[in-house]
Structures are given as C-alpha cells and as structure tokens.
Amino acid sequence: MTRAGAVTGLAIICFCVTAAPRAARAQSASETAQQHFDRGAKLYNLGHFQEAIPEFEKAYDLDPSPIFLFNIAQSHRQLGNKERALFFYRRYLEQAPNAANRDDVERRMKELDAALKQEEAAKQKPPPPGLVDHPGEAAPPPPAAPAEPPPSPAPAEPTAPAPAAEPLHWVTGLALGPAILGMWGKARVDLPTIFTARLEAAYAFQFTIGELRLGIDLGYAQLPFKHGSVPDPSLQGSSGSSGFWSVLATVRYLFHATPALRVGAGLRAGYTWWSGLDTGNPFTVMGVPVSGGAVPMPSVGGGLRLEYTVVAGLFLALAPEVLWSKTTSEGLSQSVSSLTQFEFTAGAGYAF
Q: So what's the architecture of 31-123 in CATH?
C-alpha cells in the first residue's frame, strides 16, 4: 500500500469513529427535546404556564425548531408577559416565515402591541379629579381584561388528525306486502296470493360508504284454505285458515348511493311455524290434523333492499325477498316437503 493510500484509509477511519458518536448524540438530543416538549405541553394544559416555559426552552436548546419558540410565546402571553410574548412571536416568524399559523400569530402580535400601547397611555394619563383622595396616592390600576381560555400548545411536528369514529345506531321498521307461495310435494292445492307483515330491528355498523346491519325479523302471513275430506260432512268445503309465524336472524349490507338513497342485499335464517292445520286441511295426508300444534320449519332466504330517507331518521323501504322453509312434521312432509315464499314488501322505518 502506498503512503497516500494509507493516509486516505486512516482519514476514513477517523471520520467514521467521530461521525458515529455525533449521529448518536444528535438522535439522543432529538429524543430528549421531545421529552422536554411533552412535559412542557402537559404543564401548559394544566395551566402551569410558568413551569412550562423552562421545558420548552430546554427543548429548543437541544433541537432549535421554531415551533418551540411559538410555545414559549404562548406561555408568556398566558402569564400576561406581553413584551416577552411579542419577542418570541417575532423570533418564531423570523425562523419560520412560511408558518401555517402566520396570520394567527400576526393577529396576536397586533393585539399585544395595542395592549402595551394602551397600558403606556394609561400610565401617562393623569387621574381624573376626585379619584385620588390624598396627595401622592397612586390611582388604582385599570381592571384587567378577562383572560381567554388557553389554547393547546402546537405539536413539535405536524400530525394528521385522527379520523372521527363513525356512529352506530339502531334501525326499526314495519313492512307489508304480497307473497306468492310455492309448495313442493304431493299435495295439489290452489294457493292464493297472501299478504305478509314483517317487524324488524337491527343494529347498524356505519362505514364510509355503507353500513352493515345485524338484526332480527318477526313475520306473519295468513293462508286461507277450503276443508277437504273430513269426518263431519257439514265441514266439507268450508273455509279454514292457517298461519305462518317466523323469527329470522338477518344480515344486510346497504351501500350509500347518495346521502338519502341506500341500496343493498341481505340474508335471513331462522324458523317459521305453520299453525292452524286442523282436521280436513288440504296440506296433510288425508287431512289429519298435526299433533303438537304449529309445525316448526327451518327457513333460509335472502333478497334485495332499497331505502330512501325522507327526513332525518325516517326512511321508506322496498324489499323483494324469497324465503325457503323445510317441513318437519311427518304427516305434513309426506304431502308438502318444502314451502317457498316470494315476498315483495314496502314499508317505513326509523334510525336512531
């Protein structure tokens, strides 16, 4: 190795040895400055402005960021030290001429300067006659202006505000509409269009462009029929009625197409009970009545949904949906294995 190469290598080693500690010290100083700022901000928020000033000064001594000068000026202003506050406001704008809060700082400087001039004029103005009872007695000072609430000190570094939490709310509604029935099995019955009523309640989780609703639907529909073969001839051809009672858990997602319009879809699952299957009904084998009362039927379904907000909280809704139910009673399932309801309901609801 030549002498020049050796000298160069030695210089690089010396630079690394000295630069590394300097970088470490710089990082440590920055962290310590942040610690002093945090303590100063805590004292400021507690109203201990005098104790906050030394912490902000120590932070500036370790990390000469202009924002610390602003915090020092704020603390002096809260203490009524107008001249000191003006001094640090000026230093702040000199070091940060493009500060985002420049207009606010300049406004405060004008207010402080006007207050100082007013105090100076008040000192030079002689007291009005009769205000001083005895010669040489000083006039009472003018009443102090009410102190404005202290603003929070500026952060050491600009930070983006945290997003506001989206509200959660309850949604209730009532819907009515026609339902077309479909039966699967051996029974051959002319089925009329029936009407169904549904009461719903859900808890809505709000998102930026939509909401997820988890809830429950309570439904009822009445199915009239004609008696078939019955032991009592007088009942032959007479009218009877059965009903569908349902309790369904619901999951729906609605997209906010506009502030007032929501469109979406959902799923339903639960149980439907078929009641009123008495003697001579056309749905069981030989019209035998179902023992044990209403027949529970596991049910699943889904559909679309459209909502429009009329006024705050109140909305109108349209919902074409389908519900499939599996029969469980032996006498019923031998003639009707399953039941399908195609519903088209309209109603109103309220979100609160």
A: Alpha Horseshoe (1.25)
